[in-house]
Amino acid sequence: MKTYNEIKLAQELIRFPTVKTEDKGIMNFLSKKLTAIGFKCTIIKSKGIGSKPALNLYARFGKSKPLINFLGHTDVVANLDNWKIPPFKAVVKKGYLNGRGSQDMKGGIACWISAVSNFIKENNFKGSISIIISADEETTGYGCPAVMKYLKRKGEKIDFSIVGEPSSNKSVGDEIRIGRRGSMNGVITVYGKSGHSAFAGSYINPCTALAKVISKLKNSSLDSGTKFMPPSNLEFTKINVDNLSENVVPQAASAKFNVRFNSRHKSSSLKKKLSKIINAVTKKEKCKAKIEYRVSGEAFYTNPNKEIYMVKKIIKKVTGKSAKLNCRGGTSDSRFLGSIPRLELGLRNTTIHMVDERSSITDLKKLTKIYYNILENYFK
Predict the structure, then answer these.
(1) Is residue 1 part of a domain?
(2) Active site residue: 137, 138, 175, 363, which one?
(3) Of 297, 331, 366, at which residue does a domain stop?
(4) Does residue 137 carry a catalytic annotation?
(5) How far apart are the C-alpha atoms of 340 and 126, rounded to whole Å?
(6) HEC profile for 212-270?
(7) Under DSSP, is residue 9 helix (H, G, I), strand (E, B) or coil?
(8) Does the active-site annotation cover 357?
(9) Residue 70: is it exposed, middle or buried by C-beta count within 10 angstroms (0-12/13-18/19+)?
(10) Over the stretch 188-219, which tens digit does the pLDDT of each residue have?
(11) What radius of gyration, in Å, describes the C-alpha atoms of the chain?
């Protein structure tokens, strides 16, 4: 039975320039690697950027329960100029693996596959291991939902998932993410009545109404937060008035906003709450409002369970440090896992999305050891 070294495999993965949803052959490469150690692999297409579909991977070893899963992504962000070492060369230098995706998150994928290859070779166990690799976590987010639809059609149910996002901060395993806030974007367009600014009473100013809407929303508390999640917050990110004349009151004014909301809310209830506030203000100002919403992801939270406490114990054993549970960060593919219990545990996030992204060799080896111990304890 083959086994894979996490450093060498991470280098091989980094050398595929998979910016945005470009595949460059990486999913077939991973399929071959996983097939060689006994996995059954399926390539699943989803909507990509441009005319080409994105390619995603589902791989499974074993047929029996329980089924533990790993979720990762092969796409990387751009920001490729002014690197000291070419971003896709994957050079090991002075104890660091340099390259785009070394932390986010080809390094994490390599650690999991390395741990799995060694675990399968060294252990007879009852249960199954699956791997989901999406192609667009950083961009469109169609890949993971496509895989989840495939699993639903096949009747496959994941019992527990480890998401390999770079969740660690100062040292590998110092933080375990057990949830993330949801994200929703919105556009408010307020319609008034245009007119010459010299003739008060002949116009209805949408700018005034929009300013009052913004003030009302910013001064309205959405909630007080939860034990692991901060209060939900709404931030305005753009204000636009399509008006070239300084002495003309415009017909309309608009503003864009983003809401990061905790697990006290669903996007549906939040929409109702915000719409009620907006419509009340604009009605008072004798204006009309059009409100558009786009949900990037719902909030999710896994109540600390035996698997999470098992992982905390393993991290303490491997690193000598106690892991903190939190719900920090933006959105990830975790948001597509529905009710599946999960946690996020990966490399440090010190250089993700930056020029000269890199991961220490020590971190990669340590994470592989943690993953191996998780498998060993999960199937006891």
Answers:
(1) no
(2) 137
(3) 297
(4) yes
(5) 20
(6) HHHHHHHCCCCCCCCCCCCCCEEEEEEEECCCCCCCEECCEEEEEEEEEECCCCCHHHH
(7) helix
(8) no
(9) buried
(10) 999 999 999 999 999 999 999 999 999 999 99
(11) 24
- 274, 297, 320 — which closes off a domain? 297
Q: Is the pLDDT of residue 331 over 90?
A: no
Tell me, yes or no, whether 31 and 139 share the same domain. yes
- Candidates 6, 22, 23, 75; catalytic one: 75
- Please check whether residues 234 and 131 belong to one and the same domain: no
Total count of domains within the chain: 2
Distance of alpha carbon 25 from alpha carbon 94, whole angstroms: 30
Q: What pLDDT, on a 0 to 100 scale, did the predictor assign at position 242? A: 86
Task: List, for residues 112-131, the tens digit of each pLDDT value.
Answer: 999 999 999 999 999 999 99
* 329 and 339 both lie in a single domain: yes
> Distance between CA atoms of 300 and 25, rounded to whole angstroms?
33
Question: Are residues 268 and 161 located together in one domain of the fold?
Answer: no
Residue 220 φ/ψ, nearest 5 degrees: -100, 125
Q: What proportion of the chain, given as a percentage, has pLDDT over 90?
A: 97
Q: How far apart are CA 96 and CA 326, in angstroms?
A: 27
